Amino acid sequence: MMQDMSYLTSSERDNIAVWYAGGVGVREIARRLGRNHGVISRELKRNRSGTHYVAIAVEAKASKRKHLAGLREPLGNSKLYAYVLARLRDGWSPE
Fold this sequence. Notes:
The chain has helices spanning 10-21, 26-33, 37-47, 55-71, 78-89. It is mainly alpha-helical. The protein has one domain (10-89).
């Protein structure tokens, strides 16, 4: 049965690293993890270094990306963001 999770866990990444190094194909890795093959394919394309996939390095990258995503302002312009926040605090409707 396919999992309905958005993020790969560290144990899944460990398994991907072991199986990928052992020559197991993307579709077979996906089947073993109960994931869509596209998830595994994107993970390898995004985080592979040459022909190697090192799970511990990938975990560090993923953690950093997740942290940086939370730091971005929802609106691309800081002045616009400040204006919207000020109006919301004044009781304006989000609409």
